[in-house]
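ok trying this again, last paste got cut off
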Amino acid sequence: MDVMYDMLVRVYGLLSRPLFTLGDTEFTVWTLLYLGGLLVLLFFLAGTLSRWFAESVLAKRGIEVGVRQAMGAILRYGVLFIGFLVVVQAAGIDLSTLTILAGALGIGIGFGLQNITNNFVSGLIILFERPIKVGDRIEVGDVRGDVVRISMRATTVMTNDNIAVIVPNSEFISSTVVNWSYTDRRVRFNFPVGVSYRSDPEVVRELLLEIASDHPGVLQNFPPDVQFQEFGESSLNFVLRVWTQEYSARPGVLRSEINYAISKKFREHGIEIPFPQRDLHIRSGSVALTSPRPGEDERNSVAS
């Protein structure tokens, strides 16, 4: 018993030995172990509580996944902040001793973490104002694709080439964003067509409407129409306007298929698609000949 008691006294002495002092607070091995254990428990409880709140409480109310994730993250950070203050007080640490660390952290956020903070705040704005949401077809800068995930720092956009592009959230706040499906995925495309002046405009209109009606991706409950746009320099210019929902994410495919169909239909009916032509008129005229200066004939004859 005495040996065990002596061992416990030595262990207690090692754990109670001061390591460093911060302000009026002495940090021992026991203080660090106690503080570390409480922080691990705090992170575990904060994560569990935020997941339960997002997946159980908010999911039952039909709230969108992105908003659930944002509110869960806010709850997690709030619990961590309050819990950290409680843990520090429970460990016997005077909060006034942490002012130096708080000042250093503030400087770090102001300089090194400025972009991260900007993207984090932008992510909150996106998730609550919802200018974009998961499933939207968007264009921002040179990126075009479908939004597949919105996180607190960045948004994942999947292009038509199956390439995932990670876009910082600040781009959606500070840049111009084109949302093709803000209300729904129904959009209208315009197809300019030029034909020869020898073509009958009514026949051209009927053929273009027939092409649009035969395409399965063109919505028929929003009838396509043809506008006679202008008398061009070398062609009569029309615009075929069609509505589609299936091809809103693949506008290039629809444009290619419609153009193939227009080319084939026009060849079958003898309608010419002209190209710009220019006529060059050369006017004849006389060129005045001047007599050579003295001595120039001799030089020319010697040179020849």
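PB: full thing came through this time. The mean pLDDT is 80.
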